[in-house]
Each structure stands twice: as C-alpha cells, then as structure tokens.
Amino acid sequence: MNHEAGMDARQVQVFFLVVSFIYIYPFVHADYAYIDDSWRSLLLADDAWRNQGRILLEFLHRVLTFSSVTVNIFPLPLFISTAAMAWAMSRLTLHYFPQPQIPACLVVLPLLCNPFFLGNLSYQYDGPGMLLALVALVYGITFNAQTALMRWLVATVLIAIALSLYQLTITVFIGLCAVEFVAGVKEVRQAKAVLSQLGQRVLQLIGGAVLYFCTAYQFVIDHRGDFQITGPERQHIVIEKMLFTLDKVSLLSTAGNGLVCLALLTTAALGYLMLSKNIWNMPSRTAGKSIVAILYIGVIPVLILCIPGAMLVVAEPNLDARNFIGFAGGLVFVFLLSYEALGRLGYSLRWLLIVPVLCMFSLCYAYGQVLVAKKELESAMGHYLAYDLSSNKAFATIKGFYFIGPMTGENWLPRAHGAITHAPILRYFLSNSSVLLRIEFLPRLGINNARPGRREMLDASLVPVVDGKFYQIYVTGDKGYIVMKEITDSEDFTEPLPFQ
C-alpha cells in the first residue's frame, strides 16, 4: 500500500532541475569543440542553419549573443536549454501522473538521458537548440485548452518551431503520442476518448509539418535530407539502415549492464501484457475496443521505426548517434511499462527504476571522459604540428599551407581504449566525422595561414621535409602541404611490443 505523499509541481521541477544539471555536467567539464563547433567558432557558419531549414537555431544564437554571428558563448545556451528541458519534463510527468513521486519522475527522464542523445549534446552550438526542440514538442503534448481548436493551433505552432530547430525531433513527438495512447489504456479510459486524442495528435502533426513547409523549409538549400531513395535499391537501403540501427541499439547492452537491460525489458514486457487486459475492460463497444487493441499492437513497431525515423528514406547515407533521437520515445515507453509492472508486483519495487537511470548517467559520464581524452589528444597533435611549423627554418618563407586530412574518419584514442573496449557504443557516439585533428584547431595555436586542401593537389614526387608519426609536411615553392597520416597503431597500452 502506498503511504507516501505525492510531490507538488514545485518539488517536481526542483527534482528535474537538479538531476538535469548533474547529467549535463560532463559536457561542461569537457568543453570540447565537437566537429561543427570548430568551424562555427571561427564565424564560418554563414547561413548554414538557415540553408538546412533550421532558421530558428540561427535566430536563437543571434538573440543569445546579441550579434549576427556565431560567437561561442558555451555553456550559457546549454544551461538555458537544460533549465527549459527540466521544466518540460516536469510538465510531462504531471501530464502522466497527477500526484507523482520520484519513481514516476524517472519514467520521463529518458527524454534527456536517451543514450543516443549524447551525440546531440556533444555539439556546443547545435545541442542546446536540439534540447529546445524537445521542449517545444513536450509543451505541444502537455498544452491543455478547453477547445480542440486551440489545442490544435498551439500544438501546430510548437511542432513547426521544433522542426525549425531540428527536424529529426519529430520522431520524439510521434513516440510521445504512442506513449500517451498507452497511458490512456493504462487509465482504462473510453475507447472513443483514446482514439479521439490520438486523432487530434495526427492532425497536430500534419498541421505542424505543413506550417514548417510553408515557412522555414522555404529557406532550404542544402538538400542532403531530401527523400531521394528511389529505384530498385530502395528496399535494400532501407533494410540495411534498419539493421544498422538495431545493431547500434544492441551495443547499449554490455557485460556490465546486461542483466539490468534484461530485467528492464522483461518487466516492460510484463507490463505490456498486463495493460493489454485493460483494453477489454474499457467502457466501450466491442468495435472501439478492437481498434484500440490493433493500435496497441502497432505501438511497438512504430516506436522501433521512430529510432532512425526519416533517416531510413533520406539521401544522407551516414547514421550517427544524434540521428537516433527518436529512441527517447521508446525508452519512455519501456520505463512506463516497467513502472506499471513493478507497481503491481509491489509498490516499493518501482524504486528499482533508479538502476537503469544510473546506468544512463554512468554512460554519460564515461562519454564525458572520452570527450576529454579526444580533446587532450587533439590538443597534443596541434601542438606537435605548431612546433614543427614554427621552429623549422624550411617553413620560414612559406606563405601558406594546404591541410589535407586523413582519408578515413579516425577515432584513435589510446586513453579511452579501456572504456571503449567495455562499452563499444562510446566510439559510435563520437561519430566517424570526428577526425584526429581538424584544420580549424590551428588558429588557436597561432597557425592562421592553413587552408583546406585535397590529395590531388600534392605532387607525388615531392619528398617530405617533416615525416612524423602522425603527419608529413611538404614544401614546393612558397606553398606547403600538411598531410595527416592514417593511424594504424594499436590503442591498447597493455599490448606486448613487437620485439623482445
């Protein structure tokens, strides 16, 4: 029997504020300029966000920096968006549970603690905007007006706002609609009311997409997100991307947390079966119950498809962790079902949800250390290169250098080898776009005369002036070429040396 009093709205907000700021601390501590951050901080963004249909992200940075350029003011945007996210999660918790206690709050935490969302939070510029997109969607879900028209208007605008910040967050809205549908089954509401609410969500989704298309989408020039998979290979590509997605999801389970994952999925499956019985107890006709039952069965495949979302059918071939933002909806679904099953087995058992939450926090902090390792190695590489360029007399008369990066993405990180070995998903979070050294890092070290180059520009007959472990430097006339090498050395410090 439950003898604990529920928390009020203020207490719920404080809980989420504290927990959310604890969760994002590793990113503030690392302070790592991740991929796009390196060139945005040099004010090279121009209209990049606008050209991708994310014009509100551009507007957001202009407002926060009081300028028309991408000045780096990290971590202020992250603090603001995290506070907004905490408020949004508190609203969603109260939407699901009128008198919540801490275990109920844990059900909603995966919105922020989605492991794949670590890839989004890695970006100092884009990450806060992605958080605010989720905030807009949550407010769209939780907005409650007396008239359906007002609910539709507000939700439509909020969905368009979310799309104008980060388009892929729409899968989170779909996932939360599925969770809301399951919550209606849990509460044994009338089938007509559950179906009506779902229908309203569909109309809101359509309205938001149309509004976005008529506004921010009109600025799109970068068409890498267009639906361009056509022809006989379409089915093969979609299946291949889906299998790739499921493979990456499976990496979340390791030898250390395998039992936790198994227990969470088992209790969720039990909760799913328990709630299915509620369908036939609904005060409705058989036809309505049958429709609800069919949709209830369809919730799981919908949530699975929401993980890659639109990435299944767009031209962009790369699937990075940040693209799987829709996994949050599936996690909330799993946590809700586990919460229900554990509660029926024994109220105090709901506190066991703390264990998978701690797993997500542990993964976040481990990834934070990986970012620190990446930052340290990148800094070392930059200093090696800066020393060679500034101390070698052969480069004294060089007017400029062409920087040629490695042919493949490199996440060679000896310091993080142990963590990545035991949690391979950490390497995936880094993305293949995260190379050993980016040209945009060099201005920090006073090397301001390097520009991007291509291997085709380099004369094969040239002999390197500097031939180091990580790069070669060539000279021809008043030009120089910095060529990064492919790293083939082992990351494992404990591996025996190849000699006695």
From TrEMBL:
It comes from the Bacteria. The keyword Transmembrane helix applies. Keywords: Membrane, Transmembrane, Transmembrane helix. The chain crosses the membrane at residues 12-34, 101-118, 130-149, 155-182, 202-221, 251-273, 293-315, 321-339, 351-368. The keyword Iron does not apply. InterPro entries: Glucos_trans_II (IPR025686). This is Glucosyl transferase GtrII. The lineage of its organism: Bacteria, Pseudomonadati, Pseudomonadota, Gammaproteobacteria, Pseudomonadales.
